[in-house]
Design a protein that fits this description.
This protein is of the alpha+beta class. The protein has two helices and five strands. It has helices spanning 63-72, 84-93, and strands at 15-20, 25-30, 35-36, 49-53, 56-60.
């Protein structure tokens, strides 16, 4: 998770960063207030983005995409032990709907 305090332009001490696709720029999320510092245009759920930090540019991917990839990598034979949250994350990523039974 990218902390907003390391952004090149500075940021909140206890904040996280998301990528706003409309602005083409990072947007800070204030953990304490549970909201973005500015209204987000469209948050990225996939892709790779270069973010300027105080230590130089870094390549980042949204946490959602990384989580969905980890779920997708689980063998199908482990489906009985697969967390429901993984199936839901993958379904959202690919624009699918799951029934109550998960099928």
């Amino acid at each position: 998770m990218l902390r907003s305090e390391i952004l090149a332009g500075g940021g909140e001490r206890h904040g996280l960063v998301a990528w706003d696709e409309r602005r083409g720029a990072p947007i800070a999320y204030d953990i304490g207030n549970r909201r973005y510092n500015e209204g987000p245009g469209r948050l990225a759920i996939s892709g790779e983005f270069v973010v300027d930090t105080r230590e130089g540019p870094i390549h980042c991917r949204p946490a959602f995409e990384l989580f969905a990839a980890k779920c997708h990598a689980m063998p199908l034979e482990d489906a009985a032990r697969r967390p429901v949250s993984c199936a839901r994350a993958e379904a959202r990523l690919f624009g699918c709907r799951l029934s109550r039974t998960g099928v």
